[in-house]
Write a structure and sequence with these properties.
Number of helices: 12
Largest sheet: 2 strands, parallel
Radius of gyration: 23 Å
Order of helices and strands: HHHHHHHHHEHHEEEHEE
Number of strands: 6
Oligomer: single chain
Amino acid sequence: MNYDKMEALRDEWKHMYGETLPSLALSKSSVQDSWPVHVDHCFGRIILDNVIGRDSPWMNKLKSPAAKHMTSEQLEACIALGTAIAEGRESLPLLDAKSLQLRGKKQKPAAVLANSKRKREERSDANDNNNNNNDNKENTGSAPKKKRQIDIKSALTPSTTVKAPLSTAAAPPASDPNVPPPESDEVDPDLHRLITTSDLTPFRQSVLLTLCQVPSGSFTSYAAMAGHLHSSARAVGNALRNNPFAPRVPCHRVVAADKKLGGFGGEWGMQGKHAGEKVRLLREEGVVVNTGRGRVEGLTWNAFR
């Protein structure tokens, strides 16, 4: 695996244990029955012990810092376990208990862990019953109650369906500084399928799907995408550095926060080997590019859904 892909995996791993899981814990998300830890290094410990350590603390098998020394397979496995925790498919209390046991620390009583497992099973049964009740209400003409949404969906896989503009009038160019950017159309279903069935990591898939929302004639920034994805501009940039679906996934529509040209084709700025191609693509879509200043003009598109 090349350097850029390894950097993207490292950034995704750091995002998982450093941002996604702590934010869910602090909000007391219902995806877990309880959140025994709340800070980033504790989530890192739990996942690394269960993926890397297994029968001993992870430090016995891997040099620190872990992100620097893990293989791509280990990074992907850690990201996968973190995603399972975030979606409620793995029990955080049980994984934490195993990690503490490996370290010779006091564990939670077996009864507590058994109760956590029982609650998860009861919640699963309740969800099934709710689904059946909703089906029955639909058959009798009664409106079903809305189910509570799991908040992790917005953190891991942002929605790519965007409502069409209410007005049918032609939208003015996004480069006009006095007019807000247009909304996007829905992402092409075929492209959506290609991205979501690819072997890319969940984070890279979400970055590409988010970028698909940016309409022709507009531009966004790495920082704007990072804000929507609850990530960092650097992680977004690394995820876009190797875009296997270009130009259908329009990475040329992403610029730096200061509206300078940013990266394209693995190189940065107006001096980059492929900068001319990025300028051409943007201009063909109606974006004003000031090559003298090396930046685009107009409002940064940020109408992500």
